[in-house]
Design a protein that fits this description.
By secondary structure, the protein is of the alpha+beta class. Helices cover 24% and strands 25% of the residues. It has helices spanning 60-74, 89-97, 129-142; strands at 8-14, 22-29, 45-51, 79-85, 101-103, 114-120. Helix 1 links the parallel strand 3 (45-51) and strand 4 (79-85). The relative contact order is 0.16. Residues 1-122 form the N-acetyltransferase domain.
Length: 159
């Protein structure tokens, strides 16, 4: 089916010496959604960020996110959205340090265990990254995660 490829990218981080070794991946979708459904995430939307477990905490996720932010700005957008698992404290901390804030949102799927995060590029504030992380943690503590939800088997592999 035809769609605007110029506003949808899949970015891959490869080892600088071993080009075939994939270290990380992320998808960025800036295409307007034709569906009007509260479960559809707002756009542009960052998804499927993953970094090889042996390469985490080396700046790869930050570099991929930065490239996504550059892409979004090239689309002429001032906003970027993403979802993160409610229990993924490492990712929540990272996104907070990068200036992302938690937003109120409708459930995603049958049982939602995610937070919707947002970053606006249009208005720069001098807020520290720790303040943004603190706001996400405060918002997170106010949201009751569904009881009895089992973490997916691969949850540890995603950032």
């Amino acid at each position: 089916f035809p769609y605007d490829k110029s506003r949808h990218s899949m970015l891959v981080a490869c080892h600088k010496d071993r080009k075939k070794q994939i270290l990380g991946f992320v998808d960025i979708d800036g295409r307007p959604s034709k569906l009007k459904n509260e479960n559809i995430p707002p756009r542009p939307y960052l998804s499927d960020l993953v970094v090889d477990i042996n390469w985490r905490r080396k700046g790869i996720a930050n570099a991929l996110i930065s490239r996504c932010e550059d892409k979004v700005k090239s689309y002429g957008s001032n906003d970027l959205y993403l979802r993160v698992e409610f229990k993924n404290n490492a990712a929540i901390s990272m996104y907070g340090k990068l200036g992302y804030d938690a937003m109120k949102h409708h459930y995603f799927g049958v049982k939602d265990t995610t937070l919707l995060l947002h970053k606006c590029f249009g208005h720069f504030t001098k807020e520290s990254s720790s303040e943004s992380t603190e706001r996400i943690e405060t918002k997170k503590s106010r949201i009751d995660a569904p009881q009895g939800v089992v973490d997916s088997i691969n949850a540890g592999a995603f950032i």
